[in-house]
């Protein structure tokens, strides 16, 4: 340990560039960084960071690479060099650039010429290759025009060297064609792509030579991998007018070492769309299939082969699925037209069926995408199918194209039914330990898979509903007779049955569904054990919930189902009650009218029976489940059209919660301390949550219930607010973590939630504004303003936003009052950093957005100092690190600059804030953490610049006493030029000039404007000398001039758009 500490203390010598570099000391520091922990690692890390950032560090790279004994130190040295090449290459003297280039090339040749060294120094060589590619991005083709021919020539001398050169070509292709966006300017990227294409014949000749002649396995592998990267951009003649395809199929496809990369190459070719090469595509298909049948006979059980296969064998199955799906999706119609290829087509489909049975989700998703496109294509070609009307189609022929796929589609139906993924609604699942439990986390992947499988099975059912029904009925029989009984099999079958709701003719659906439910209820009777019954119950509930059309048409069945759900609400097995409540709410939403009508054979609407039995139905449910139940019943009540009957139903519906509420209010009136008891406060919270859910589903008519408890509710809000404030005054802010205080805050939140839910559903703005808003603002706003920051409810802000979004200009008069109470105090909570009070942050800007959208007049009439605060908060928002806040800030700003245009205050707004807004937007454009907002940045800037250009800003933005400019446009251009030069002094005048020119010339074309900004972001990362040839600035200037001319032409076509003084003389007459 002492020697280690001594080493760390000496390490600072590494930063003294007047001394000779101590390589062994550097090796030690690097080892400490990678191999130790604690203070030593921290100090070593700091020293290495400082060394990497030193402007002269690159001058020591050659010494480190030559004398260091540590691979990690060499890698560190290459990282230093990489930074210099990426950012400062253009300012290095020519001889130093040449020196680095020769040194790197020499090192690469030295290592890669010996296959033993290549294996030993793999990571080191890989980094050297990357550095060479970074140099090429600056030097080739302008300064190093012979690079490709040099590389191809050198490759013929040595196979090991040739293999590494293939890797360099692959990296160069990726940099130019795959990763150039945001890394190079558009013009530079275009020139490099053009150079690659024009010099490709030499590269192609080399690849062809290796494939024809080399016996070196690693070289051939590298060549095929490099070819794979080329296939998506090379001129098509190299693929279809040479022997590349036949070489891949006949020479490499059946060689186990090469078959995976070869299949990837063939897949890349199959993805090309070029009708002039249809014959070659057909050959590609038939030749590949012929080889495939020898390599993997159709008699092989692919499911088992995959399960027992090695990694490369499993990859082959995955690559094969990709090839077949890609080819058939792009060119299947070609094969269909060739009768002599039908057998081959059916063999390819048979492979896909076998691969679809493999137990690997990613492979199944690949196949599913194809089955989905095939089934939807066949359906759309002839939607008038067997599901339209059985009477009309008895004599109709199956379309010939569909006939071709009939046998395959039967197998696909069986796979879909046997493998159906779990729908979102199913909450009772079997976990990894084989236990039946409630699912708490939603599995997004499984839900997406279910949606795709469901859609596919619906199309397949439309194509032949009898076949779907036959498979499902047989599989259900096998559940009942026990031959296929298992939880998994029953689940997938029932999920599949639920997924085809609506895809059969109504009469067929009725017959089928009655059989299914009867069999499942019978199964529930004969199976013993709670787990079995829970699984069957969850499946019954899922299926009935999926068939509202059937339930609406069969009242007795609907009533039976709902009563069965009420039974399940007493079943305490994990997840069953949840699912019963969730199914109940789905049925209530889809069949609500039927519950408020007197049905045939009934003496009263079923809703009356439910309300009479509410206590007994919900007695075993948890609070959350009770809330769901209340929401469901609310949907039923909302279907009642008679207001008098509805009012009576609501009174009966809310009787239980109101009884508990009245008891608490009565006690609190006698003794206010009653509201300090935790159980009482929790009960209040639950009652209010029940009201919220009821209000959500009943809608505006819930006003009768809200009116009943409204003033008491606001008094409870005030009282609990005072209790919280007193507790904080007495015990400090830590008291807010105590259960009682948290329960009190829950009640406050639910009060606000109930009011905003009702307002969002209301249809009488006057009633809301006259009777509900004034007492609420009195109770809520002062309390919010007075409270300590941590005790302010974020829901106050979202509730105000809801009011404004719903009531719009009806609430304009209240906006100043709302702003006074919440604006400044909230802004002071959130403008200290980007982390604290995240909910307040989000809701604050949603409120501001609502005001901007609906009450703009109120906003521009607030005092100037308050308006300045509003603008500051918007700027704060779009600079925010939370993406949703930054996006909202940009939306608000855009609304502001659009809305202000037509206001009297517009000119004073521009004079005061225009330049400030432009400067702040430019600052976020150049901040890499805000790249995601570039489209919106471009939209706002383009709008701002077009305002100046169209002379909508009539007052000068500059101080006439200080400087004279012919127009605001000229002033803005001069101003931006100056701030860009100050912020990025390393940019050349021409770069800045062309950037500013483009901001005006492209302001009517947002995509082009955005790409122009992206080009600028690429340039600011790089220091350069006077040489700017690789940026093709003259070419860019010419493009901008063309863009300006085009824009002018469009404007000239609209009389009055262009200022008369800007119209050319010859066009004045």
Automatic annotation (TrEMBL):
Q: Which PROSITE patterns match?
A: IMPORTIN_B_NT
What molecular functions are annotated in GO for this chain?
nuclear export signal receptor activity; small GTPase binding
One biological-process term from Gene Ontology? Answer: ribosomal large subunit export from nucleus
Q: Please provide the record's keywords in A-Z order.
A: mRNA transport, Nucleus, Protein transport, Transport
Q: Identify one Gene Ontology CC term for this UniProt entry.
A: nucleus
Q: What is its main location?
A: nucleus
Q: Which Pfam families match?
A: CRM1_C, CRM1_repeat, CRM1_repeat_2, CRM1_repeat_3, IBN_N, Xpo1
Gene3D superfamilies given for it? Leucine-rich Repeat Variant
Which compartments is it annotated to reside in?
A: Nucleus
Task: Extract the InterPro entries matched here.
Answer: ARM-like, ARM-type_fold, CRM1_repeat, Exp1_repeat_2, Exportin-1/Importin-b-like, Importin-beta_N, XPO1/5, XPO1_C_dom
Ranges for domain Importin N-terminal come to 44-110
Concerning its family, UniProt says:
Belongs to the exportin family.
Recorded protein name is Exportin-1
Q: Which organism is it from?
A: Exaiptasia diaphana
């Amino acid at each position: 340990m002492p020697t280690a500490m001594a080493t760390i203390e000496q390490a600072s010598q590494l930063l003294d560039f007047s001394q000779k570099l101590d390589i062994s000391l550097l090796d030690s520091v690097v080892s400490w960084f990678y191999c130790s922990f604690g203070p030593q690692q921290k100090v070593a890390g700091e020293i290495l960071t400082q060394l990497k950032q030193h402007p002269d560090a690159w001058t020591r790279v050659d010494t480190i690479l030559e004398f260091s004994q540590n691979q990690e130190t060499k890698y560190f040295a290459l990282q230093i060099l990489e930074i210099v090449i990426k950012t400062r290459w253009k300012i290095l003297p020519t001889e130093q650039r040449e020196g680095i280039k020769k040194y790197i090339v020499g090192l690469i040749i030295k290592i890669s010429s010996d296959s033993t060294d290549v294996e030993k120094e793999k990571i080191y060589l890989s980094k050297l290759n990357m550095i060479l590619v970074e140099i090429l991005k600056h030097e080739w083709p302008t300064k190093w025009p012979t690079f490709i021919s040099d590389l191809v020539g050198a490759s013929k001398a040595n196979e090991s060297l040739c293999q590494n050169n293939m890797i360099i070509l692959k990296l160069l292709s990726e940099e130019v064609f795959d990763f150039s966006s945001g890394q190079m300017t558009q013009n530079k990227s275009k020139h490099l792509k053009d150079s690659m294409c024009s010099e490709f014949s030499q590269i192609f000749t080399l690849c062809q030579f290796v494939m024809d002649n080399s016996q070196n396995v690693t070289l051939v592998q590298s060549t095929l991998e490099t070819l794979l990267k080329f296939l998506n951009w090379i001129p098509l003649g190299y693929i279809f007018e040479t022997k590349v395809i036949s070489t891949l199929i006949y020479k490499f496809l059946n060689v186990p070492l090469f078959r995976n990369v070869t299949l990837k190459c063939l897949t890349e070719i199959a993805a090309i769309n070029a009708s002039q090469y249809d014959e070659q595509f057909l050959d590609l298909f038939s030749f590949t299939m012929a080889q495939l049948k020898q390599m993997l006979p159709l008699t092989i059980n692919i499911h088992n082969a995959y399960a027992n296969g090695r990694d490369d064998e499993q990859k082959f199955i995955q690559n094969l699925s990709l090839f077949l799906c890609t080819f058939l999706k792009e060119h299947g119609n070609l094969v269909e037209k060739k009768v002599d290829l039908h057998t081959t087509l059916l063999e390819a489909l048979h492979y896909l069926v076998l691969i679809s049975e493999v137990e690997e989700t990613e492979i199944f998703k690949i196949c599913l995408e194809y089955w989905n496109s095939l089934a939807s294509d066949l359906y759309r070609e002839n939607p008038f199918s067997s599901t339209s009307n059985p009477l009309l189609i008895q004599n109709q022929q199956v379309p010939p194209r569909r006939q071709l796929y009939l046998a395959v589609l039967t197998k696909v139906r069986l796979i879909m039914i046997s493998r159906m993924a779990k729908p979102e609604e199913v909450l009772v699942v079997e976990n990894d330990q084989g236990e039946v439990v409630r699912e708490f986390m939603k599995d997004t992947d499984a839900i997406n898979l279910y949606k795709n499988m469901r859609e596919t099975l619906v199309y397949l059912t439309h194509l032949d509903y009898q076949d779907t029904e036959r498979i499902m009925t047989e599989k259900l029989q096998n559940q009942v007779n026990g031959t296929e009984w298992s939880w998994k099999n029953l689940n997938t079958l029932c999920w599949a049955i639920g997924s085809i709701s609506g895809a059969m003719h109504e009469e067929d659906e009725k017959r089928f569904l009655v059989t299914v439910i009867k069999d499942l209820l019978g199964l529930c009777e004969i199976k013993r054990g709670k787990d079995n019954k829970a699984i069957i119950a969850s499946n019954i509930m899922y299926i009935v919930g999926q068939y509202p059309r059937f339930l609406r048409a069969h009242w007795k069945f609907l009533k039976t189902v709902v009563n069965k759900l009420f039974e399940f609400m007493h079943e305490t097995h994990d997840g069953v009650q949840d699912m019963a409540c969730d199914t109940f709410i789905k049925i209530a939403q889809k069949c609500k009218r039927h519950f408020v009508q007197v049905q045939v054979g009934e003496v009263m609407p079923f809703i009356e029976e439910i309300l009479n039995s509410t206590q007994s139905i919900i007695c075993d449910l948890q609070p959350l489940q009770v809330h769901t139940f209340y929401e469901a019943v609310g949907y039923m009540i909302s279907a009642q059209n008679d207001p008098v009957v509805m009012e009576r139903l609501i009174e009966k519906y809310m009787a239980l919660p109101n009884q508990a509420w009245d008891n608490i209010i009565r006690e609190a009136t006698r003794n206010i301390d009653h509201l300090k008891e935790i159980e009482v406060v929790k009960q209040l919270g639950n009652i209010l949550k029940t009201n919220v859910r009821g209000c959500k589903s009943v809608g505006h008519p819930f006003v009768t219930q809200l009116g009943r408890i409204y003033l008491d509710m606001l008094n409870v809000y005030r009282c609990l607010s005072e209790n919280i404030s007193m507790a904080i005054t007495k015990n400090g802010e830590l008291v807010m973590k105590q259960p009682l205080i948290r329960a009190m805050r829950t009640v406050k939140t639910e009060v606000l939630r109930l009011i905003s839910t009702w307002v969002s559903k209301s249809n009488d703005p006057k009633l809301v504004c006259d009777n509900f808003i004034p007492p609420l603002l009195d109770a809520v706003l002062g309390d919010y303003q007075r409270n300590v920051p941590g005790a302010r409810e974020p829901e106050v802000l979202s509730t105000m936003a809801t009011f404004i979004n719903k009531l719009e200009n009806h609430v304009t008069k209240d906006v100043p009052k709302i702003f006074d109470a919440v604006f400044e105090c909230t802004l002071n909570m959130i403008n200290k950093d980007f982390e604290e009070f995240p909910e307040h942050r989000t809701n604050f800007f949603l409120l501001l957005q609502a005001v901007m959208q609906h009450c703009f007049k109120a906003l521009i009439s607030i005092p100037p100092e308050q308006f300045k605060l509003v603008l500051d908060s918007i700027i704060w928002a779009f600079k925010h690190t939370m993406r949703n806040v930054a996006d909202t800030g940009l939306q608000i700003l855009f609304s502001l600059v659009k809305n202000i245009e037509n206001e009297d205050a517009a000119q004073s707004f521009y004079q005061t804030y225009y330049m400030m807004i432009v400067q702040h937007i430019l600052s976020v454009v150049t901040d890499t953490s805000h790249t995601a907002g570039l489209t919106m940045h471009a939209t706002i800037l383009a709008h701002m610049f077009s305002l100046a250009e169209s002379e909508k800003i009539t007052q000068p933005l500059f101080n006439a006493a200080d400087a004279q400019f012919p127009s605001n446009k000229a002033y803005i251009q001069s101003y931006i030029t100056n701030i860009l030069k100050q912020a990025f002094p390393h940019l050349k005048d021409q770069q800045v000039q062309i950037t500013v020119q483009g901001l005006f010339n492209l302001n009517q074309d947002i995509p082009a404007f955005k790409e122009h900004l992206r080009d600028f972001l690429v340039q600011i990362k790089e220091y350069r000398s006077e040489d700017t040839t690789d940026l093709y600035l003259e070419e860019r200037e010419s493009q901008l001039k063309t863009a300006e001319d085009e824009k002018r032409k469009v404007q000239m076509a609209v009389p009055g758009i262009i200022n008369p003084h800007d119209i050319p003389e010859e066009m004045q007459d």
